[in-house]
Design brief:
Pfam families: Cep57_CLD
InterPro entries: Centrosomal_MT-associated, Cep57_CLD
Helix content: over 70%
GO molecular function: gamma-tubulin binding; identical protein binding; microtubule binding
Distance between the termini: 171 Å
Order of helices and strands: H
Shape: rod-shaped
Number of strands: 0
Protein name: Cep57 centrosome localisation domain-containing protein
Oligomer: single chain
Largest sheet: none
Organism: Strix occidentalis caurina
Length: about 110
Amino acid sequence: MVSSAELEKKIILQQQAQLQKEEHQNQLELCAKLEKLEMLQKECLKFTATQRIAEDKIKLLEENHCKEERQHKLIQDKTAQEANLSVKNTLFFKLHLNAICLLPRKNSWNVT
Protein backbone atom coordinates (compact mmCIF):
# COMPACT_ATOMS: atom_id res chain seq x y z
CA MET A 1 0.00 0.00 0.00
CA VAL A 2 2.79 2.38 0.83
CA SER A 3 4.57 1.64 -2.38
CA SER A 4 1.33 2.16 -4.31
CA ALA A 5 0.88 5.57 -2.69
CA GLU A 6 4.50 6.48 -3.41
CA LEU A 7 4.08 5.38 -7.02
CA GLU A 8 0.92 7.44 -7.34
CA LYS A 9 2.71 10.43 -5.80
CA LYS A 10 5.59 9.99 -8.23
CA ILE A 11 3.18 9.86 -11.21
CA ILE A 12 1.37 12.99 -10.00
CA LEU A 13 4.70 14.83 -9.59
CA GLN A 14 5.73 13.81 -13.10
CA GLN A 15 2.39 15.01 -14.47
CA GLN A 16 2.81 18.34 -12.63
CA ALA A 17 6.33 18.71 -14.01
CA GLN A 18 5.04 17.95 -17.52
CA LEU A 19 2.20 20.49 -17.12
CA GLN A 20 4.65 23.13 -15.85
CA LYS A 21 6.94 22.44 -18.78
CA GLU A 22 4.02 22.76 -21.24
CA GLU A 23 2.84 25.94 -19.53
CA HIS A 24 6.34 27.42 -19.78
CA GLN A 25 6.50 26.44 -23.47
CA ASN A 26 3.08 28.04 -24.07
CA GLN A 27 4.26 31.25 -22.36
CA LEU A 28 7.36 31.35 -24.58
CA GLU A 29 5.21 30.86 -27.70
CA LEU A 30 2.78 33.54 -26.52
CA CYS A 31 5.66 36.00 -25.96
CA ALA A 32 7.05 35.28 -29.42
CA LYS A 33 3.62 35.79 -30.99
CA LEU A 34 3.11 39.05 -29.07
CA GLU A 35 6.50 40.33 -30.25
CA LYS A 36 5.62 39.40 -33.82
CA LEU A 37 2.24 41.12 -33.48
CA GLU A 38 3.90 44.28 -32.17
CA MET A 39 6.37 44.24 -35.07
CA LEU A 40 3.53 43.78 -37.57
CA GLN A 41 1.58 46.65 -36.00
CA LYS A 42 4.62 48.94 -36.30
CA GLU A 43 5.07 47.86 -39.91
CA CYS A 44 1.39 48.51 -40.60
CA LEU A 45 1.68 52.03 -39.15
CA LYS A 46 4.76 52.65 -41.28
CA PHE A 47 3.01 51.41 -44.43
CA THR A 48 -0.07 53.49 -43.63
CA ALA A 49 2.10 56.60 -43.27
CA THR A 50 3.93 55.79 -46.53
CA GLN A 51 0.60 55.27 -48.29
CA ARG A 52 -0.70 58.60 -47.00
CA ILE A 53 2.44 60.37 -48.26
CA ALA A 54 2.11 58.67 -51.66
CA GLU A 55 -1.58 59.62 -51.90
CA ASP A 56 -0.73 63.24 -51.04
CA LYS A 57 1.97 63.28 -53.74
CA ILE A 58 -0.44 61.80 -56.29
CA LYS A 59 -3.04 64.42 -55.40
CA LEU A 60 -0.47 67.19 -55.80
CA LEU A 61 0.69 65.79 -59.16
CA GLU A 62 -2.92 65.59 -60.37
CA GLU A 63 -3.53 69.20 -59.32
CA ASN A 64 -0.36 70.34 -61.09
CA HIS A 65 -1.37 68.36 -64.18
CA CYS A 66 -4.78 70.08 -64.22
CA LYS A 67 -3.12 73.49 -63.87
CA GLU A 68 -0.76 72.70 -66.75
CA GLU A 69 -3.67 71.53 -68.91
CA ARG A 70 -5.55 74.78 -68.20
CA GLN A 71 -2.45 76.83 -69.03
CA HIS A 72 -1.91 74.82 -72.21
CA LYS A 73 -5.54 75.41 -73.21
CA LEU A 74 -5.15 79.15 -72.53
CA ILE A 75 -2.02 79.26 -74.67
CA GLN A 76 -3.81 77.38 -77.47
CA ASP A 77 -6.74 79.80 -77.27
CA LYS A 78 -4.42 82.82 -77.29
CA THR A 79 -2.48 81.38 -80.24
CA ALA A 80 -5.73 80.81 -82.13
CA GLN A 81 -6.84 84.37 -81.37
CA GLU A 82 -3.51 85.76 -82.55
CA ALA A 83 -3.65 83.68 -85.74
CA ASN A 84 -7.21 84.85 -86.38
CA LEU A 85 -6.21 88.46 -85.77
CA SER A 86 -3.24 88.03 -88.10
CA VAL A 87 -5.49 86.68 -90.85
CA LYS A 88 -7.92 89.56 -90.34
CA ASN A 89 -5.10 92.10 -90.41
CA THR A 90 -3.71 90.56 -93.60
CA LEU A 91 -7.12 90.69 -95.25
CA PHE A 92 -7.67 94.24 -94.08
CA PHE A 93 -4.25 95.25 -95.38
CA LYS A 94 -4.93 93.63 -98.77
CA LEU A 95 -8.34 95.28 -99.03
CA HIS A 96 -6.89 98.63 -98.05
CA LEU A 97 -4.05 98.19 -100.52
CA ASN A 98 -6.49 97.27 -103.29
CA ALA A 99 -8.63 100.28 -102.44
CA ILE A 100 -5.61 102.54 -102.67
CA CYS A 101 -4.59 100.99 -105.96
CA LEU A 102 -8.07 101.49 -107.38
CA LEU A 103 -8.26 105.18 -106.47
CA PRO A 104 -7.93 107.46 -109.48
CA ARG A 105 -4.47 108.84 -109.70
CA LYS A 106 -3.70 112.36 -110.44
CA ASN A 107 -1.51 112.55 -113.42
CA SER A 108 1.52 114.60 -112.62
CA TRP A 109 2.22 115.11 -116.29
CA ASN A 110 -0.59 117.50 -117.03
CA VAL A 111 -1.09 116.67 -120.62
CA THR A 112 -3.63 118.95 -122.20
